[in-house]
Specification:
By secondary structure, the chain is α/β, with parallel strands linked by helices. The chain has 2 domains: about 1-40, no CATH class; about 45-180, Rossmann fold (3-Layer(aba) Sandwich), CATH 3.40.50. It contains 6 helices and 6 strands, in the order E-E-H-H-H-E-H-H-E-H-E-E. The protein has helices spanning about 40-45, 65, 70-85, 100-110, 115-120, 135-150; strands spanning about 5, 35, 90-95, 130, 155-160, 180. The strands form 2 sheets. The protein has a 4-stranded parallel sheet with strand order 4-5-3-6. Strands 1-2 form a two-stranded antiparallel sheet. Strand 4 (about 130), helix 6 (about 135-150) and strand 5 form a beta-alpha-beta unit. The longest helix is centred in the last third of the chain and has 16 residues, at about 135-150.
Length: about 190
């Protein structure tokens, strides 16, 4: 996630240390990373976490060998549902690497009873689970409006595709993105 302007926070390397102007202590070195201090207070409002293991200690690595394993998708769904339930209000965005992976998860999660868990918060508030449509612009606009209305009336979970219509060009401000969950990476075939 990034929004804002490029800013120099003053920790560029010196020319004599061999780093040729690259940033120290950051993954992104060139161009300078985006600073969004005018949007959020990063130290108070942003928590970025990578989850490497399920509750039972099994590795959570999202690769095809694991996806094919019996029970993996159920554990993945239970983990997503646990995160969603901890968000007291608003919208939760869940991004997948492909439409096929969303379809696989929706089918498995409905079959295994995980789907209903996605709809509940710990405080008992019910939220709607919405899946990004595969159709044209009309279906996209209807889905976007459904998501907005669901968030405005208590909450929603949106399952969408990296680089899909919902992830490109839609502004999810404030309650519309209380949490963002990214599952896997959209790697080319």
């Amino acid at each position: 996630m990034g929004s804002g302007v490029n800013a120099d926070d003053g920790d560029y390397a010196h020319d004599d240390d061999g780093l040729d102007g690259q940033k120290r202590g950051r993954l992104q070195v060139k161009p300078p990373p985006l600073q969004a201090d005018h949007v959020i207070k990063m130290e108070k409002q942003l928590l970025a976490v990578s989850i490497g293991h399920f509750d039972n200690g099994e590795e959570c690595k999202f690769v095809m060998n694991n996806v094919k394993k019996e029970g993996y998708m159920t554990k993945l769904g239970e983990s997503v549902a646990a995160i969603c339930s901890s968000i007291p209000r608003g919208g939760v965005l869940v991004f997948f690497p492909s439409k096929a992976m969303i379809a696989k998860c929706v089918y498995g999660w409905k079959r295994d009873g995980v789907w209903d868990s996605l709809k509940k918060t710990r405080s008992g508030i019910s939220r709607e689970v919405i899946v990004e449509p595969t159709g044209g612009n009309k279906e996209f606009e209807e889905c976007k409006q459904q998501y907005v209305e669901a968030v405005d009336s208590g909450g929603a979970v949106l399952l969408a595709v990296f680089r899909g219509k919902m992830s490109e060009g839609v502004s999810f401000n404030d309650d519309y993105a209380r949490a963002v969950i990214c599952i896997g990476f959209p790697l080319p075939r």
